[in-house]
Amino acid sequence: MKELRFAIKNTVPIFITYLFLGIGFGVLMSEGGYGIALTVASAVFIYAGSAQYIMVPMLVSHAPLLSVAVMTFFINARHIFYGIGFVEKYRRMGWRCPYMIHSLTDETFSLLGSIRYDPDLDEDRAAFFISLLDQSYWIFGCFVGVCAGEFLSFDLSGAEFSATAFFLVVVVNQWRQQRSKLPFVIAAGSALVFFLLLGKEYFIIPTLTGCLALLLLLRRPIEGKEAADA
Amino acid sequence: MPESLYPVAVIAVIAAVTYFLRALPFLLFGGRPLPKIMQYLGRTLPPAIMTVLVIYCLRDIDFTRAPFGLAELAASALVVLLQVYRSNMYLSIVAGTVCYMVLLRVL
């Protein structure tokens, strides 16, 4: 099982991040008066951090299902972009494909999009194990959080920074691997412009759309750079 | 709807919408041979999205009030420096998070 060993080794950073974030969600659920079953069901079937966090106040206030659906759409719309790079790879994976789609979280997407597989590995198997492990960490974190609930005596505020740190590390690694740095520049520029124009609530989808459009427009120089250095 | 079923319905709705969003590119391009442009996007879109995710995580910084995002910026700088010079993901993430949690309490 060298694929499983590879997956365990490479998902440790996500274990740390998901433990913190999952516990945070579990504690929220227990404070809202919801038990282990609903908490674990959310982690298994929703498996999306920000949507799960938003769900708790919506549950408490008995929001109508239609507004739950609309809210989820806007919070998670960024996920539309994640699959674009994986259509080809996941299609090959047959029966695993529906689960690979389900497990495309921010963190799993970033890990699978930046990982370098050892040459002797079955890549599809390794990617599947990584996805499966990531979600089991998430379920575990949520479970611990809801069980510990109000008994948790230490203040965890700030632990959510582990997600920021995780994405920073991934970007540093990607910066080293990518021949053309333009995708990074495009992304940072697009994010700053739309953040200043639209504010923190609404900038994410226009930013990602802007990235997509600029990458398509600048295909020639980017591919030229990739070919020149190859 | 019976009271006890409401949370189940909420979870089902969020799960369905989220899965739909994640599956959308596969629904659009799933059956057909992929246009060449998709391979290009498969290479270049992920680094762009990851960069956006960093900024997305930092969106709550308030630059107008003390301490002007100092905790976030200092902890982020530590993460980047550690990753550049040590290349140890666990160290970078744990040290950065601990640094942020400490700064949050002392600043």
The portion of residues forming beta strands of chain A comes to under 5%
Helix % of chain B is over 70%
Q: Helix count of chain B?
A: 4
Q: How many beta-strand segments of chain B?
A: 0
Main structural class of chain A: mainly alpha
**Segments of chain B where pLDDT lies below 50 for 5+ residues?**
none
Major β-sheet profile of chain A: none
Would you count the extended β strands of chain A for me? 0
Tell me the fraction of residues in β-strands of chain B, as a range.
Answer: under 5%
Largest interface: A-B, 92 and 64 residues
Average pLDDT of chain B, rounded to a whole number, is: 91
Tell me the domain tally of chain B: 2
Question: What does this protein structure show overall?
Answer:
The complex is a heterodimer of chains A (230) and B (107). With 230 residues, chain A is mainly α. Chain A contains 13 helices and no strands. The longest helix of chain A is centred in the first third of the chain and has 30 residues, at 2-31. Chain B contains four helices and no strands. The model of chain B has no long low-confidence stretch (mean pLDDT 91). Chain B is flat and about 50 Å long. The relative contact order of chain B is 0.06. Chains A and B meet through helix 1, helix 2, helix 3, helix 4 and helix 5 of A and helix 1, helix 2, helix 3 and helix 4 of B.
Quick gist of this model?
Chain A has 230 residues and is mostly helical.
Key features of this structure:
heterodimer; A: about 230 residues; globular; B: mainly alpha; 2 domains
